[in-house]
Design brief:
This protein has a 5-stranded parallel beta sheet, sandwiched between helices. It has helices at residues 11-23, 34-43, 61-69, 88-97, 109-120; strands spanning 3-7, 27-31, 47-53, 79-83, 101-104. The protein has a single domain, classed as Response regulator (Rossmann fold, 3-Layer(aba) Sandwich). The chain is 45% helix and 21% strand. It contains 5 helices and 5 strands.
Length: 121
């Protein structure tokens, strides 16, 4: 059982992600934006994965990845980044920033479960 932080400003999307994570037997920790997510990551060194949206208020997913990758304790943290409206070049950029995987919205449940399993093993 791993602790997985979900940073998503859309309540419906966040609830869906939480349901998937908890259905896999993991603990879901919720953040409504990137700034809250960063506070949780900075204070909880036992978080095993971050699932984040790209577009969020206060601190977006891009900046959240950059901050996490700049922190020695989080440089290897698996990060799945999700977005509904994004171009191919942006996906490449997110992966270069340090995202472990990219997923388009709407999220395909089987793919998310697969990525979580692979990245946590």
């Amino acid at each position: 059982m791993a602790k997985i932080l979900i940073a998503e400003d859309d309540l419906t999307s966040r609830r869906m992600l939480v349901k998937i994570v908890e259905g896999m037997g993991h603990v879901a920790i919720q953040a409504s934006d990137g700034e809250v997510a960063w506070g949780i990551l900075a204070d909880n060194h036992d978080i095993a994965m971050l699932i984040t949206d790209v577009m969020m208020p206060n601190l977006d997913g891009r900046a959240l990845i950059q901050i996490a990758r700049g922190n020695d304790a989080l440089k290897d943290l698996p990060i799945i980044i999700i977005s509904g409206v994004i171009k191919l070049e942006e996906i490449d950029y997110l992966l270069q920033l340090g995202a472990s995987r990219f997923m388009p919205k709407p999220v395909k449940v089987s793919d998310l479960k697969h990525y979580i399993s692979v990245l946590l093993s």
